[in-house]
């Protein structure tokens, strides 16, 4: 009987680890959140589309940055973006670029009682900035972690971590 209980315990642990493993890159969840990531950073860096950014964050969004500190609340996070976007000439090249490092994106589903309610998305991205000669130069390389939740059937970021910023060589 003890052997059977041990086997059941091992199987239960194995099944639990399989359910919370990183999603395959061809899974629907992985592809959905990869597209959301692309939409977010396109809105932030290429389009300066604060309304799209707003649609991707929960109202109680929290942003933790290893160099810039913490920002609590979607509106507080977006306020500087709204101000900066109002000043930008969209006919000029973008001042900064965000590039997702190929192969770095990982997605881990979050379940409660077997029902998908969220996901953790982790990756590495690099940034480039226009210098005084209007040429892009390498900026930071950093890690990011997003906690996505399903809110009324829509994927939104509830928490974002941006950390381990290091100047690219």
Automatic annotation (TrEMBL):
Entry keyword set: Signal
Residue span, DUF4440 domain: 38-157
Signal peptide residue numbers: 1-21
Pfam families: DUF4440
Family matches, as SUPFAM superfamilies: NTF2-like (SSF54427)
Signal as UniProt keyword: yes
Name listed for the protein in its UniProt record: DUF4440 domain-containing protein
Species in which this protein is naturally found: Flagellimonas eckloniae
């Amino acid at each position: 009987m003890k052997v059977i209980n041990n086997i059941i315990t091992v199987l239960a642990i194995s099944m639990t680890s399989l359910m919370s493993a990183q999603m395959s890159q061809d899974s629907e969840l992985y592809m959905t959140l990869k597209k959301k990531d692309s939409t977010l950073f396109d809105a932030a860096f290429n389009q300066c589309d604060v309304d799209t950014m707003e649609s991707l964050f929960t109202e109680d969004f929290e942003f933790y940055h290893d160099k810039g500190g913490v920002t609590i609340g979607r509106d507080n996070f977006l306020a500087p973006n709204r101000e900066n976007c109002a000043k930008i000439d969209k006919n000029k090249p973008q001042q900064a670029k965000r590039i997702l490092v190929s192969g770095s994106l990982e997605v881990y589903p979050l379940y409660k009682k077997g029902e998908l309610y969220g996901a953790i998305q982790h990756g590495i991205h690099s940034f480039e900035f226009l210098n005084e000669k209007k040429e892009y130069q390498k900026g930071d390389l950093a890690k990011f972690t997003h906690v996505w939740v399903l809110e009324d059937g829509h994927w939104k970021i509830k928490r974002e971590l941006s950390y381990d910023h290091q100047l690219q060589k």
